[in-house]
Amino acid sequence: MDLQIDKDTQLCMSLAARPGNFGTRFHNFLYSALGLNFVYKAFTTGNLAAAIGGIRALGIRGCAISMPFKEECMQYLDGLDPSAKGIMSVNTIVNTDGKLTGYNTDYTPVFELLKKSGIPSDIDFALRGSGGMAKAVACALRDAGFVRGLVVARNETAGNALAQQYGFQWRKEIANERPGLLINVTPIGMTGGSEAQEMAFSEDLVRAAQCIFDVVALPPETPLIRYAASMGKKTISGAQVIALQALGQFVLYTGVTPSMELVEKAAAFARG
């Protein structure tokens, strides 16, 4: 991979509490393969307002937004694309001549993966989490026809609001229910976190379920996904989601749509 940087190179970036290497490797691989004069770098920040002001002031073309900034960042933007306005969560900022617009590329990959999975939409599900990504997943579940679901969240205000918005129920914990579909939208199992070796659902719940969906992308196989696979359960991983949502961001930043063959190569490189 040979990137040549000059004064005309356009910078794209990401902001996350715990930056990873996937986005940096994915985007830079595609820039190089397609001969685009772009470069991508991951950052974290303790001052979100200043960081987003820097995007505007320095002419940074785009920025991926990850936990915990997906909702907080909206107050600093000039507008929201319908993809973000509908769920009030942003995972992508695009800078067009100093105007910052928020988008969400999380929804479509989740919706497509749910539809392709063959999971029956009349199945009971439990969605653990209530943040920005949980909003995208809950919206995708509703639009894919799922109606019998629980939002499981310790934060009653956020959890109940999310559940009511999409016609589901809220619970602080799963009690006696045994949902057929379990979805983790929390940092549990994420590389670098205090809960990196933990599972978002108990072994008993996993054994009773038909399908496990973990949106955590790093590692590609979380403890939850590994255990579910060992039990012979159908799984959907965050590694599948992150490649598709990163592709959506790439197209927004560059206006170029790479072939799926090249996207798969970029994703494999990013995970390597």
Could you explain how this protein is built, in words?
The protein is of the alpha/beta class and 272 residues long. The protein folds into 2 domains: 10-104 and 246-271, Rossmann fold, CATH 3.40.50; 107-240, Rossmann fold. Helices cover 38% and strands 19% of the residues. The protein contains 10 helices and 12 strands. It has helices at 22-34, 48-58, 82-85, 107-117, 132-143, 156-165, 203-208, 223-230, 238-254, 260-271; strands at residues 10-15, 38-43, 62-65, 79-80, 92-96, 99-103, 125-128, 149-152, 169-171, 181-184, 211-214, 234-237. The strands form 2 sheets. It has a 6-stranded mixed beta sheet with strand order 2-1-3-5-6-4. A 6-stranded parallel beta sheet has the order 9-8-7-10-11-12, sandwiched between helices. The longest helix has 17 residues, at 238-254. It is globular and about 60 Å long.
The helix fraction, in percent, is 25-40%
Total strands: 12
CATH-defined architecture of the largest domain = 3-Layer(aba) Sandwich
Count of separate DSSP helical elements:
10
Structural class: alpha/beta
Question: What is the CATH level 1 assignment of the largest domain?
Answer: Alpha Beta
Summarize the biggest pleated sheet: 6 strands, mixed
State the end-to-end distance. Answer: 14 Å
CATH superfamily of the largest domain: NAD(P)-binding Rossmann-like Domain
> How many domains is the backbone divided into?
2
CATH topology of the largest domain: Rossmann fold
